[in-house]
UniProtKB/TrEMBL annotation:
It comes from Marinobacter orientalis. Residues 8-101 form the SCP2 domain. GO terms for cellular component: cytosol. Signal peptide: none annotated. This is SCP2 sterol-binding domain-containing protein. InterPro entries: SCP2_sterol-bd_dom, SCP2_sterol-bd_dom_sf. It comes from the Bacteria.
Amino acid sequence: MSVAQVFEKLEQNFNADAAEGLDLVFQFDIEDDKTYHVIIKDGTCKAVEGAHDDPSVTLIMDSETLKGIVSGETDGMQAFMAGQLRAEGDMMLATKLGELFNMG
C-alpha cells in the first residue's frame, strides 16, 4: 500500500460522529515520502497532499510506521514511546486519531 493509498483509506474509515463540532488539521510529515494534511471540520474529512500553513498538530514518522498504525499492527502510543513517531503542536490531539478513524 502506498502512502497516498493510506490517506485514501483514512478518508474511507473516517468516523464523522466523533468529529462533530471539531475544526482541526493533522499534518503528517512522512520522512521517506510526501507530506500530507488531513482537515477535520464539522464532521467532514479531507486528506490533501502537501503542507498546511497552520496545522493543529504535526506527526512525523516514516512510511512503515504510518502503514503500521493505520493497519492496526502498530500501536501509536508505543511508536511514540519508541521514537518512531514524533509530534509537534497540540500533542493531545494526536490521541484523538483513534476516535476519528476506524483503524485496523
